[in-house]
Design a protein that fits this description.
Elements lengths: L8 H11 L7 E10 L4 E10 L2 E6 L10 E4 L4 E4 L1 E6 L7 H9 L3 E6 L2 H6 L5 H5 L8 E6 L10 H4 L2 H9 L3 E7 L2 H6 L2 H12 L3 E4 L6 H10 L3 E2 L5 H9 L3 E5 L7 H10 L8 E4 L13 H10 L4 H6 L3 H6 L17 E4 L9 E4 L2 E5 L2 E2 L31 E5 L5 E5 L15 E7 L5 E8 L7 E4 L7 E5 L2 H14 L2 E6 L2 E7 L11 H17 L7 H7 L8 E4 L2 E4 L4 E5 L1 E2 L1
Parallel strand pairs: 1-4, 1-5, 6-7, 7-8, 8-9, 9-10, 10-11, 11-12, 12-13, 18-21
Antiparallel strand pairs: 1-2, 2-3, 5-14, 14-15, 15-16, 16-17, 18-19, 20-21, 20-23, 21-29, 22-23, 22-24, 24-25, 26-27, 27-28
Length: about 575
């Protein structure tokens, strides 16, 4: 049976012996000025640590310090390790590479989306796969998805009653959601509603996804079981959620950098308590993290006039308390995991040293430990064993997709001859294909507003794990597909037969094995080339991801076909190859 608690009985007995002086602690942080979250005060104390656990915080020093490492923290400030409560760990990076990078700026706990684990693993192997992360010096927790946020041909096989209940019963799963299919629940989807009730029975939280929702809709979702939401785009929307009893996660991400605005508008409305607020970067694309992760959000909050204690709590204690794990982490107190950040000043949340589960991830400004890679071979390779032929590149659909911004689309009528081999480069229209990763089906249309001068972009990175091809030239699109096949997954830019840039994504065709810094550089080059080629938006990775995402308006390219989100209908179905 899997161990459900970090310490066995004999370990806990050892911890109490340290207080009696019969065993020495591993380490003592002496003269530490630390954030006491229970008292909501800065206090001075000595912090005793034994391996991965804080065994005492107070005025005393250990009677037995034989072999103990004693570090004087005079002049330093110590806060709990930061928690990212809403991670999509597959935006070209992978869960391990993102976490290792984030740990260097103090974020050491991750509550993350399981969607790609479900899509890329064989169904029964997804939950066992994530157990590997329990061995990490960082802390990984997971969601249990109740829907796929797109129209899949086999969703009822992917997200089954048995699988959902198994995920909800796992101790490392803290929530159900995010619930992008809430309109179905409001209408009549009793299966998802039953899973929501199962989540509540298992003391899990339920994360909504309610952009632009009215007060009445939010009230309905609270009645149905939703406990929190991260989709407020204004102070009024955040306030409305708080009024209805939801916990609110304020977002600052690559497509919604809203935190300064949200804080100021909440302050203007007279908000007195920040206890029900958390913060997230909401699965931003790689280069967004150049300036940090949760430390960046804490800095913004402090700059916007939030009391530093509230700012630190919104990235640690408030999150831990909401997810009912403050007995383990999110605060510096006796019995918690030894996960903390050492700061040079209260106003600078980027730590000098970072400890997670008793391991120095960073010490005195220097990276101190690398994390062992999970066994990625457990995720099946993309393995494209089929060819893209000229007959596949037929575009005759009368309706296309027009980009409004990075992720919002609308329909438009196609009014030019799509039988040409290359579209005029003075227009902003391009061919667009979504092809089954197993080669069984395809759908072909036109996209307006993506670029003006790009031969082709090919991508195995998509919301459903299928292949996206966009471009002016059918020949370049074929070349891009061939390169994806040779790379065993990736994003490829081609123009006039020349490969301009490649990002290999060898983990299931969705994620890179490279370190975060390398992925950042690759994404920045991708953006720079696309900008030169007429891409006028700022987040192409999210454009690719959300082309199939049916939780956003209005027209999406899905496994079932060209889909009208508002009418919930397939306008044109996919074609079998």
């Amino acid at each position: 049976m899997d161990q459900r608690f970090p310490w066995k009985i004999h370990n806990i007995r050892q911890h109490t012996l340290i207080l009696d002086g019969k065993l020495p602690p591993t380490m003592v942080l002496k003269n530490a000025t630390y954030l006491n979250s229970s008292l909501r005060m800065w206090k001075q104390a000595n912090i005793w640590i034994y391996k991965d656990r804080i065994v005492y915080v107070g005025e005393l020093l250990p009677k037995n310090s034989s072999g103990t490492e004693i570090l004087d923290m005079t002049g330093k400030w110590i806060v709990p390790g930061y928690i990212e409560p809403h991670v999509h760990p597959f935006q070209l990076y992978n869960p391990q590479s993102f976490a290792e990078y984030a740990s260097q700026s103090g974020t050491t706990t991750f509550i993350q989306d399981n969607l790609m684990m479900l899509l890329l693993n064989e169904k029964k192997k997804a939950l066992p796969f994530i157990q590997q992360f329990k061995k990490s010096p960082l802390s990984f927790y997971w969601w249990a998805r109740l829907d796929s946020q797109t129209e899949l041909l086999n969703e009822e096989e992917l997200i089954t009653n048995g699988e959902v209940r198994q995920w909800l019963a796992d101790p490392s799963v803290l929530l159900a959601g995010e619930l992008t299919s809430w309109p179905k629940v409001i209408d009549d989807d009793d299966l998802i509603l039953s899973w929501m009730q199962e989540a509540r029975v298992n003391y899990k939280r339920i994360e909504g996804h309610l952009p632009g929702a009215s007060e009445k809709t939010i009230a309905k979702m609270v009645l149905l079981g939703v406990t929190g939401d991260h989709e407020a785009m204004t102070g009024d929307e955040a306030w409305m959620r708080l009024e209805q009893g939801l916990s609110v996660t304020l977002r600052h991400s690559s497509i919604r950098p809203d935190l300064p605005k949200l804080i100021q508008e909440l302050k203007d409305k007279g908000l007195r308590s920040f206890d029900s607020l958390m913060m997230t970067t909401d699965g931003s694309t790689p280069s967004f993290y150049r300036d940090g992760v949760m430390d960046r959000l804490i800095s913004i909050a402090i700059e916007e006039g939030i009391d530093p204690i509230d700012a630190y709590h919104m990235a640690s204690y408030s999150i831990a308390k909401y997810y009912r794990m403050e007995f383990m982490q999110g605060m510096i107190a006796t019995g918690r995991l030894a996960t903390l950040n050492v700061l040079e000043s209260i106003d600078n949340p980027t730590p000098l040293s970072v400890m997670s589960k008793g391991h120095w991830m960073k010490k005195d400004g220097k990276r101190n430990v690398s994390i062992e890679q999970p066994d990625w071979s457990q995720i099946p390779e993309l393995g494209l064993d089929w060819e893209l032929g000229d007959e596949d590149l037929q575009f005759s659909m009368p309706c296309g997709i027009e980009m409004v911004n990075n992720v919002i689309t609308k329909p438009y009528s196609i009014e030019f001859d799509t039988s040409v081999e290359e579209i005029n480069r003075e227009s902003d229209e391009s061919f667009l294909m979504l092809i089954d990763r197993y080669g069984k089906w395809k759908i072909c249309t036109i996209i307006k507003g993506f670029s003006r001068d790009l031969g082709a972009l090919g991508s195995s990175f998509s919301n459903s794990g299928d292949i996206i091809l966009i471009g002016k030239s059918k020949k370049d699109m074929s070349t891009a597909f061939s390169r994806i096949k040779a790379l065993n997954g990736g994003i490829v830019l081609v123009d006039q037969g020349e490969v301009l840039h490649e990002i290999p994504l060898t983990i299931g065709g969705m994620m890179s094995k490279e370190p975060m810094e390398a992925v950042m550089a690759s994404e920045e080059k991708l953006k720079a080339i696309l900008e030169k080629k007429g891409y006028t938006h700022n987040d192409p990775v999210y454009t690719l991801l959300f082309l199939s995402s049916t939780h956003l308006p209005y027209i999406r390219l899905t496994q079932k076909g060209l889909y009208d989100v508002k009418k919930k209908t397939v306008l044109f179905p996919t074609i079998m190859r």
